[in-house]
């Protein structure tokens, strides 16, 4: 049974109690933080991620297991492509950075690739910070391969590992994201680029925390380098992606996450998300936290199937997608929408209600004007078809 909670309990202890006695916390990574930024209004995801709940195990316990994730083939292909990009001391990667982001600098010949090995994530984080400080004053090119960064999330450090960080001769820093999806004719799938940009924004925020501790403060570039296979080959190509918008959204969401105690304070005293609890009790705990489901959650959140079923059962218009939800104003359920369209409820001066009634009239007129005729030959007993 979950331990009782009190108002005076420290935040970390309260989150541990929500997670469940003796349940280890699942560390936040850049993908999870980026997914949070993509749906900033979801209190359910905020509290679960802030408490370190394993949402995959939680979804299975609720009877709606997650059905997304990279296949082993995709992981193997991605690792092979990344190794190709970073071969020969990252020569090709640095060439792409120079070509796409810093043509005015000297070509990256003889770049430094410091050893970032250390014991534990804290040790690797400290070693990365030292390497960044040394590289910033070196006035040359430096490639940090899989550095370790720390970002404060809800009072606890989240350890993040970008694919690479490049230090330019002018001392500025660039995040590099290497993905295995292709760029066809110089362009990639916009949804995948967006996801990569949100993930890179998390790394940029973490780098900014490192930079803020240096004097003078180096510039963390807000244009990151996205490296992908060219067309259907295994040859790398790259594009500069401006992530200022994604960085701002992510920063706001992380600021909101640091106040997850406000969300926790609204939960029942016995709320607990431990996967080994009885299904009825666990469902009640999850449902006590408001969710903001949208179809986009299916590709980003382990609880998406559970939330979708609940959203459909409640007739919520959010299950139709965010654009539809935005157009419907104060109408929050499908039943309210249909009643407003039929003229049974709703303020006729409300633009959403007026648009629904106009659409209903046009539909009725179209149906009245459609008079299906019998197929030729039917009157004579023929098949007509």
Walk me through the structure.
By secondary structure, the protein is an alpha+beta fold. It contains 15 helices and seven strands. The protein has helices at 11-19, 30-38, 43-50, 55-61, 72-85, 87-101, 120-136, 190-211, 244-257, 260-264, 279-287, 304-313, 322-327, 334-341, 351-368, and strands spanning 142-145, 149-153, 156-160, 164-167, 173-178, 223-229, 236-242. The strands form two sheets. Strands 1-4-5-6-7 form a five-stranded mixed β-sheet, sandwiched between helices. A hairpin with a 2-residue loop joins strand 2 (149-153) and strand 3. The model is unreliable at 1-9 and 379-385 (pLDDT under 50).
Q: What overall geometry do the principal axes of the alpha carbons give?
A: globular
The portion of residues forming beta strands comes to 5-15%
- Category by helix and strand content: alpha+beta
Radius of gyration: 26 Å
- What's the arrangement of strands in the largest beta sheet? 1-4-5-6-7
Number of helices: 15
Give the termini distance in whole angstroms. 68 Å
What is the helical fraction, as a range of percent?
A: 40-55%
The average pLDDT score comes to 87
Identify low-pLDDT runs: 1-9, 379-385
